[in-house]
């Protein structure tokens, strides 16, 4: 099933999407760059290789295996509800996304997990290649958490694969540096996470990073009041304040970063506007 769904459909879709978004962000840039684009492409792709390998050989097979086992155990919400199969598919998709919203908050709030997630946030620019800049340790942690979520929800192997493809596509989209027509983005943002919304999550201001945790659907942040849209994109400085020295952010340092002493977040000031729900250009 992994071969027929993920490899035959998912991978070409994700590669095609990458090519389109890459070209769009080249032509319509949202935020100014502070680093050389090609150097970042190189660093982010090398850092992503172990994480990608783990995704394909360990993460996806173990999630699908667990979901298949659970079809026999019949554990989880979907096995308790006697609903139409289509409705079950929708509920599963939405709840898998909710579990990833919670996981993303845990990555920020639990010091052991932040050690790994910080590697992703040290990127000094934000674009589609940031979507690949994850430490492989984060991938291992997510196997445990997402495995539990799959069991509790009672997700089927097919839904696990469909959600995974959608998750990767959404991550490419919201990390991209594409300047979309403002009204179109505002309309899309009522339902899904968009580049401006996620750009605020990568700010060096703590209050801004501590917002916009959603992955696909943006309403999790609205429901939990963790949404913040009132920041102009050209006011955002991307990164983590204590890791702002470009020369220290080498491939070697990024890979060993979780095993070193993690610097505390020292904030700079910004006056906050009250209306957090008002998206700004
Ligand atoms: Zn984050």
Radius of gyration: 19 Å
- Give the overall average pLDDT: 93
Q: What is the SS-derived class?
A: mainly alpha
Q: What is the helical fraction, as a range of percent?
A: 55-70%
Count of beta strands: 0
Query: Which ions and ligands are bound to the chains?
Result: zinc ion
Terminal-residue CA separation: 43 Å
Largest sheet at a glance? none
> What is the strand content?
under 5%
Written account of the structure:
- This protein is an all-alpha fold and 281 residues long.
- It has twelve helices and no strands.
- The protein has helices at residues 2-27, 37-73, 77-80, 85-109, 111-121, 136-153, 157-175, 182-189, 195-201, 206-209, 219-223, 251-256.
- The longest helix has 37 residues, at 37-73.
- The N and C termini lie far apart (43 Å).
- Bound molecules: zinc ion.
- Zinc ion (ZN) is lined by residues 104, 108, 117, 121, 201.
Write the layout of secondary structure elements.
Layout lengths: L1 H26 L9 H37 L3 H4 L4 H25 L1 H11 L14 H18 L3 H19 L6 H8 L5 H7 L4 H4 L9 H5 L27 H6 L25
Helix pairs in contact: 1-7, 2-6, 2-7, 4-5, 4-6, 4-7
Bound molecules: zinc ion.
Zinc ion binds next to helix 4 and helix 5.
Brief write-up:
This protein is mostly helical and 281 residues long.
Which descriptors would you attach to this protein?
mainly alpha; binds zinc ion; 60% helix; globular; 0% strand; 281 residues
């Amino acid at each position: 099933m992994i071969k027929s769904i993920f490899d035959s459909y998912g991978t070409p879709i994700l590669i095609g999407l990458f090519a389109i978004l890459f070209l769009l962000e080249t032509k319509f840039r949202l935020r100014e760059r502070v680093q050389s684009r090609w150097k970042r492409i190189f660093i982010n792709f090398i850092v992503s290789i172990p994480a990608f390998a783990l995704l394909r050989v360990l993460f996806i097979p173990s999630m699908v295996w667990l979901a298949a086992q659970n079809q026999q155990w019949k554990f989880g919400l979907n096995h308790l509800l006697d609903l139409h199969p289509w409705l079950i598919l929708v509920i599963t998709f939405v709840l898998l996304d909710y579990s990833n919203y919670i996981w993303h908050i845990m990555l920020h709030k639990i010091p052991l997990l932040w050690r790994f997630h910080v590697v992703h946030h040290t990127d000094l620019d934000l674009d589609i290649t940031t979507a690949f800049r994850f430490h492989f340790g984060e991938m291992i942690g997510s196997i445990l958490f997402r495995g539990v979520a799959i069991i509790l929800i009672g997700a089927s192997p097919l839904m696990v694969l469909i959600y995974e493809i959608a998750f990767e596509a959404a991550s490419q989209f919201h990390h991209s540096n594409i300047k979309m027509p403002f009204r179109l983005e505002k309309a899309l943002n009522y339902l899904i996470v968009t580049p401006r919304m996620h750009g605020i999550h990568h700010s060096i201001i703590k209050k801004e990073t501590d917002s916009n945790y959603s992955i696909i659907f943006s309403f999790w942040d609205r429901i939990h009041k963790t949404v913040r849209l009132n920041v102009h994109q050209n006011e955002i400085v991307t990164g983590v304040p204590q890791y702002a020295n470009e020369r220290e952010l080498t491939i070697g340092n990024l890979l060993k970063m979780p095993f070193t002493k993690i610097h505390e977040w020292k904030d700079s000031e910004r006056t906050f506007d009250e209306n957090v729900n008002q998206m700004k250009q």
